[in-house]
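Database export, one record per block. Field names are fixed; values are copied verbatim from the stored entry.
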Amino acid sequence: MMTSPDAASGDAEDATTAALDALADRLRALAHPARLVVLQRLARANRCVCGEIVRGLPLAQSTVSQHLKVLGEAGLICSRAEGTRTSYCLDRAALVALRAEIDAVFDVLLAEGPLDTPAEG
């Protein structure tokens, strides 16, 4: 079965829209300052349990757990059950991929026209 050029174009647009939606979801996960602190703590450690992440933060354990859930759903961290605890670590490959996606978006945005600022008036 052959697809028309219009259908193929629509499929490509759908894929682009889906990719941008997924990128926006990951960026929303990064948009909370507490989540950035959690990521920084995980970056300094190979693996942490929630209690280790909570130490020194002005947040309840349940709040940190919710932030870990959001980061996990965004694919930015990995978790592993270790007995009665769950340990967390950065998904460094996912973060490298996210950086590349952001760079690609900015490459397109900055290549589309002059870098001049709009005239005031």
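Remark 1: The longest strand covers residues 77-82.
Remark 2: The CA atoms of residues 25 and 48 lie 24 Å apart.
End of record.
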